[in-house]
Fold:
Amino acid sequence: MQEATLGYDVRIDFPAVPLFLQYKLPELMTRASAFEIANSLCPGLTLEFFRIALMRRDVSDQHRHLIDWETRYPGQVFYAAPCLRDCPAFNNAYNAASVASRSVLFSPAQIGPLPDDKVHTIAYKPGLSYGYFCSEPRQIEAETFEGLTARLSQKFKDKNVRDFRATARRRRSVGLCSKPRLRSGDRRKMPLPEGCGRRCRRLPRMVQLCSLIASKRSSTFW
Structure:
């Protein structure tokens, strides 16, 4: 429900550099009859290439929500499109924690609002610095995960982000003190840290995830 109403899967309300990724399942295009290349509509795009479909406007507000989030967090909200041609390739990338590094990222804001309720897709190919938003092909920028992490790593030099480690340690100490009550399943009576809302009741797990962000382990996903 959260994905449909807000546009993303997980949000962690701690001081950090937020990153919103909406993964899409790609379709591998192997035939010259694909409309993107049948009439040379997408210069530079050749077989084999990938295609992902966006949620239709009349089915979900996901795309609009992602644009809204990117307005608040410029350059930190993306569609993530893997470049993995089959299940064995995905399994190998998953086991090697390299799904992200083998994905292409597209900005919802650069795509812009969907013009109608029809199906719209993005065509892309590994190695290209751009993809095509269709059905009327329009070139859009494709960003690699390596480029993204290099760019966002500069944000970790900001004082507010550097203080995140201390914040995570404080939250962890509170979570450890509350651990017996977590085990008993009595979460209604568990004391919450100052300024922490109801969503922080699963605190030890939240702190673990946030610590991964603070240590910039960009290959870790949840």
Q: What stands out?
A: The chain has a mean pLDDT of 78.
